């Protein structure tokens, strides 16, 4: 059975997903094309050898709609003979692209494949793909969940309430994320994975100088009177500071069989070791990272103690803290170079952004195994284990 390896992984710096963000003027097609082109330039790979490009995009609307991955690869100069597809597993879309790519190699369906992701949240707002839908749920779903589901911010509040995670603990976690990302940027930890674009050479959202006192004055981001009546256990502690910001960015990962890499004289960064997907209560929405982590470790025959580095997406501080409480994770090994609260969370790009950060981080720190997991809307999660080579 072929072994799937990561030969290279690259990402753009992450920009603020707002009109004044550094990447706001970049069409999403060109944003993804930039990472795809950088991947080719860094590896000197003949793009005609690529069997498929699998892209992850969450808000498939406007310029990000209609299998945009195909337009992006053509914009990046790939031959017209290279196919593409676009997948949506919500925030884990490009992590799912990595899974599909690696599984295709292992199955013998691919020799060389690119997994990528993009999101321009400033240009294509979240929810734009549902605009105009009279009923996005249907009769059967409504009968099963008569009270209705909630948005991700409320789910994060419900998680904080269930696991007893305080506002101060979430704010402390957020400050640590920014501090780690800032320090990693200063020491050049991201330099080998970044493809600067539009004048942006570093992640735009990393902040320094905040304190618990300055964060404490921020208002709850998701307070709603009706929701407060429905869920009296919520203490309204999720703010803009302890949640990930709107972001723009892209990332791409080159995956192939170990045999093909050897034939081309390419030295892999990591082996794609094990995969899992899991689902959990859609009301709490963001908790499936817990069963996904357990499942991927079981499939790998490993334990939490075997994992040298974790990349757990910081959609909200409460998610990672609840995950750590359930899994017993040592937070000193989690998001060691900062996470999405500081770096940003460009939805469809985040899966490959985290994978890029993880494989390069394993080489920087000399770790063997890395585990990546992401919470995803609808109560879903992907989990992946890689082994440094």
Structural summary, described in words:
The chain has 389 residues and is an alpha/beta fold. Helices cover 35% and strands 18% of the residues. The protein is built from 13 helices and ten strands. It has helices at 28-43, 68-75, 93-107, 138-144, 152-163, 167-186, 212-216, 225-230, 258-263, 289-300, 317-327, 340-343, 350-365, and strands at residues 4-11, 15-16, 52-56, 84-87, 112-120, 247-257, 270-279, 309-312, 369-376, 380-388. A hairpin with a 3-residue loop joins strand 9 and strand 10. Helix 3 (93-107) packs across helix 13 (350-365) and helix 10 crosses helix 11 (317-327). The protein starts with a strand and ends with a strand.
List the helices and strands and how they pair.
Layout lengths: L3 E8 L3 E2 L11 H16 L8 E5 L11 H8 L8 E4 L5 H15 L4 E9 L17 H7 L7 H12 L3 H20 L25 H5 L8 H6 L16 E11 H6 L6 E10 L9 H12 L8 E4 L4 H11 L12 H4 L6 H16 L3 E8 L3 E9 L1
Parallel strand pairs: 3-4, 3-5, 8-9
Antiparallel strand pairs: 1-6, 1-7, 2-6, 5-6, 7-10, 9-10
Helix pairs in contact: 1-2, 3-13, 5-11, 10-11
